[in-house]
Structures are given as structure tokens and as C-alpha cells.
Amino acid sequence: MKPFLVIVLALFVCIAAQDDKKNKLRSTDSEIKIYKRLIPADVLRDFPGMCFASTRCATVEPGKTWELTPFCGRSTCVQNDENPSKLLELVEDCGPLPLANEKCKLDTEKTNKTALFPYCCPIFTCESGVKLEYPEITKEEPKQE
Question: What's the number of domains the chain is made of?
């Protein structure tokens, strides 16, 4: 019975260590801005009712999500409530880069381009008292077909 207890204890320690790693990763969440937008989904004529994920060269069912690697982002195939025959793609990414500012630099130590979204988003470090400015994003009204 003792070996079983040792294994359970070891698993508990591993799980606690993983949770600690996740918490350390999440400490940078305040620096990460996630931008979301709905766009018309790509659909292949031979696969109606499914989104085409060009970064994976695969079809995806409504409700399913895929990573946009090699880009930093993810997408979800969404059924259009207003017109069920049309599919949408919910794109989540890092958004636009900030406006150029000599007092702010890309922090290459903290930025991990190969991490999963949103931890692959660029992180900038600015001099004390300086705040990054971002281009204004205008929302486009969906085109009526």
C-alpha cells in the first residue's frame, strides 16, 4: 500500500508544480491585449457547413477552434445566427502593433514567438512614465448581400 501512497504524493507534487508554472505565465496577462473580430469564414464547395482553416489546410466544424500558427492567434468556426447557411470565423489575435515610439522597445527576453496564443504576443518595455499608443481600429459594418 505504501508504493501507491508514494505515487499519489508524487503526482500531487507534479500537478502543484504545473499549476505554479501556469500562474507564473498568467502573471503577464495584464500586458497581453487580445483582439477579437468576426469575419466571413472561408468555406470549400466540397465541404459546405465547415470552415476552412487555411493555416492548417483543413476543414473545421462549427464550434471548434484552431491555432493560427505560424501567426500568433487562434480562430473558432462559428454558425451565423442570422443566416445559418453562412459561417463566420472568430479571430483572436494580438491586434495591431503599437505606434512607433523611441522610448519603447520590443522586449525580446519576454516575447516568445513560438508559445501558444496569447503568450506569443509581443511584449514591449517602455521608459518610466511612457505609455504605448495604438492605432485606432474602426469597426466596419458588415456588408449586406
Answer: 1
Distance, in Å, from the CA atom of 56 to the CA atom of 144, rounded to the nearest integer, reads 29
pTM, rounded to two decimals = 0.68
> Does the residue 21 lie in any domain?
no
Express each pLDDT in 64-120 by its tens digit.
999 999 999 999 999 998 998 899 999 999 999 999 999 999 999 999 999 999 999
In a domain, 90, yes or no: yes
Residues across the chain: 145
Residue 45, pLDDT score: 95
- 36: containing domain: 31-126
| Cell reading at 138 | 474602426
> CA-CA distance, 66 to 43, in Å (whole number)?
15
Helix, strand, coil abundance in the chain, percent, nearest 5: 20, 25, 55
